[in-house]
Every structure is written in structure tokens, then in C-alpha cells.
């Protein structure tokens, strides 16, 4: 029943129906916002993420292809947008790794501080090189402190997939650190 209704909404939306867009918005905004809020833990960021998700839905209305349910599609969009906003804001604020480790406070010499900052930059580059899903899993786990089970629920994937993505991320970051160590 719900799936058939969603198909009709999507069809109407693809034909530029503002009414269909309004119905979709009213039907799913609260739950999409709740998904974003669970990740961001900030009402303003969650609201921004939701607005972006619904704006993209409208912009891409004529070419949208949804293989799952519309609700799942919007929730995944909220998760992805939330993670991207957090990453962007953290990068601009220079907070990426400080949430995980803060060895500069333990560094006693200017050389150690410089070495840490170089290492930090290499790790940031390594994280940025990770495939999207892998990076999202890593950020949720290491920066947001989410359990594998929580990540699986947020991203609508299995716990096994979360484990595999974390293994992949850590393997890649080990390679990055090994290259850094060899070049130092």
C-alpha cells in the first residue's frame, strides 16, 4: 500500500507537481529530520541537512530513480548530508583529529609539534581518499563514537558491512601511516 502510494508521488513529482512535493515533504520531514538529528546532535545542522535533502529531491525530480522506498531514499540522503556537513564544518574549524587524539598537548618540543601536525595532515588526506561509504563508517565510528550496530542502523546496512568498511578504512590508513613513517 505505502509503496504504491510512494510510486504515485514519485511519478507526480517527476511531472513537476508541487502538490506531490508538498505531500512528500509533509509525510517524511519529521522522520528525515530525526535521522539527521541522531547523527548531528544539533538541531540547526539537522535542519540544514533536511533542507538540502528535500531541495535535491525537487531539483532532480525529473530524473530521480529510487530502487528502495522513498522513505529509505530520503533517510539515506539525510545520513549522507549530515555526515558531509559535519565533515565540512569540522574541516573548516580544524577539529578533525583533535576529537580523537590530542598529542600536541603532550609534545614538548617544537619539532614534536611540527611532526604531529605533519602526521595529522597525512591522516586527513588518507581519510579524504577513502571511498564514500567507507569514510562515512569511519567518521561515525571514530569521530562520533557510534557502535557498529548504531552505524548499521543509521546507514541501513548490515553490521558485517560496517565491520568490512572499518577494516578497509584502517588498512588504508595504516598504509598512509607506513608511507609517512618511511618518508620521515
Count of folded domains: 2
In this structure, how is the largest beta sheet organized?
none
Q: Work out the helix count.
A: 8
Q: Which CATH class of the largest domain?
A: Mainly Alpha
Portion of residues within helices: over 70%
CATH homology superfamily name of the largest domain = RNA polymerase sigma factor, region 2, helix turn helix motif
Cα-atom radius of gyration: 20 Å
Topology order in helix (H) and strand (E) letters: HHHHHHHH
Q: Identify the CATH architecture of the largest domain.
A: Orthogonal Bundle
Distance between termini?
A: 62 Å
Number of strands: 0
Instruction: Please tell me what the overall shape is.
Output: elongated
Mean pLDDT: 81
Describe the structure.
77% of the residues lie in helices and 0% in strands. The chain has eight helices and no strands. Helix 2 runs antiparallel to helix 3, helix 3 crosses helix 4 (70-93) and helix 6 crosses helix 8. The protein starts with a helix and ends with a helix.
Outline the secondary-structure elements.
Layout: H1 2-14, H2 18-40, H3 43-59, H4 70-93, H5 110-129, H6 132-143, H7 148-155, H8 159-183
Helix pairs in contact: 1-2, 2-3, 2-4, 3-4, 5-8, 6-8, 7-8
Amino acid at each position: 500500500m505505502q509503496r504504491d502510494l510512494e510510486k504515485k508521488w514519485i511519478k507526480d513529482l517527476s511531472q513537476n507537481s508541487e502538490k506531490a512535493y508538498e505531500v512528500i515533504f509533509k509525510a517524511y520531514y519529521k522522520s528525515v529530520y530525526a535521522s539527521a538529528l541522531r547523527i548531528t546532535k544539533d538541531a540547526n545542522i539537522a535542519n540544514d541537512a533536511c533542507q538540502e535533502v528535500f531541495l535535491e529531491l525537487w531539483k532532480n525530480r525529473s530524473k530521480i530513480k529510487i530502487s528502495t522506498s522513498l522513505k529509505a531514499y530520503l533517510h539515506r540522503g539525510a545520513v549522507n548530508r549530515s555526515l558531509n556537513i559535519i565533515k565540512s564544518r569540522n574541516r573548516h574549524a580544524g577539529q578533525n583529529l583533535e576529537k580523537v587524539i590530542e598529542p600536541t598537548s603532550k609534545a614538548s618540543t617544537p619539532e614534536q609539534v611540527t611532526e604531529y601536525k605533519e602526521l595529522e595532515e597525512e591522516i586527513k588526506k588518507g581519510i579524504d581518499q577513502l571511498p564514500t561509504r567507507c569514510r562515512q563508517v569511519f567518521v561515525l565510528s571514530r569521530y562520533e563514537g557510534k557502535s557498529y550496530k548504531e552505524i548499521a542502523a543509521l546507514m541501513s546496512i548490515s553490521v558485517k558491512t560496517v565491520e568490512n568498511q572499518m577494516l578497509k578504512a584502517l588498512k588504508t590508513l595504516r598504509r598512509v601511516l607506513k608511507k609517512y613513517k618511511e618518508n620521515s
